[in-house]
Amino acid sequence: MEAQAETLNARMDELREEHGGEEGLLSNAIDKQKISKKSLQTAIKELGKRNDDNAEEYDMLLSYKKLIENEVEVQTKIKASTADLEKKVIAQYPKMTIDEIKTIVVDKKWMHSMEQRIKTEMDNISHRLTQRIKELAERYETPLPQLANNVSDLTSKVENHLKQMKFVW
């Protein structure tokens, strides 16, 4: 049901992006960058009845309204299913032993969460180490004797320039 709700939301977003511009079919229903049920009703009322002039816009508004209604229906079902599931879970707790509860809470929920956090932290550490290794490789790419030669060459160039400028040190 949640996947169905996400699909409906994605479809509504797609329609809003595609037809929500200044000259779009849904532009009359957009209020503060969103399309509410009220603004949609108002836009449909303003169009009046469907005719040849407004057929495309009218159909688009009705299809968007249908998507909103479907989403509300699915969200209602999700809430009801979640409440029913919670009741069933709560009803099962008195039937379970302490060890079974510990297994569920610790092994299934807590350990899974900890494993995910540890994996994420290990990935972050690995990424930082890789970045640091690349940085060090770039920094020490040139060997020291070559750097020393470059420094002596540049020093002699600077000294020659200073002599040409008649600068004494």
Q: Mind explaining what this structure looks like?
A:
This protein is mainly α and 169 residues long. 77% of the residues lie in helices and 2% in strands. The chain is built from 5 helices and 2 strands. It has helices spanning 2-19, 37-47, 55-92, 98-139, 144-164, and strands spanning 30-31, 34-35. The chain has a two-stranded antiparallel sheet with strand order 1-2. Strand 1 and strand 2 form a beta hairpin. Helix 1 packs antiparallel against helix 3 and helix 2 (37-47) runs antiparallel to helix 3 (55-92). It is flat. It starts with a helix and ends in a 5-residue tail after the last helix.
Task: Please give the structural blueprint.
Layout lengths: L1 H18 L10 E2 L2 E2 L1 H11 L7 H38 L5 H42 L4 H21 L5
Antiparallel strand pairs: 1-2
Write a brief caption for the model.
The protein is mainly α and 169 residues long. It contains 5 helices and 2 strands, in the order H-E-E-H-H-H-H.
Instruction: Please work out how many helical segments DSSP would assign.
Output: 5
Oligomeric assembly:
single chain
Instruction: Tell the overall outline.
Output: flat
Nearest-integer average pLDDT: 86
List how many beta strands DSSP finds: 2
Secondary-structure-derived class? mainly alpha
Order of helices and strands: HEEHHHH
Largest sheet: 2 strands, antiparallel
Termini distance? 83 Å
Helix content: over 70%
Write out the strand line-up for the largest beta sheet, numbering strands in chain order: 1-2
The gyration radius over C-alpha positions equals 34 Å
Percent of residues in β-strands:
under 5%
Which spans have pLDDT < 50 for at least 5 consecutive residues? none
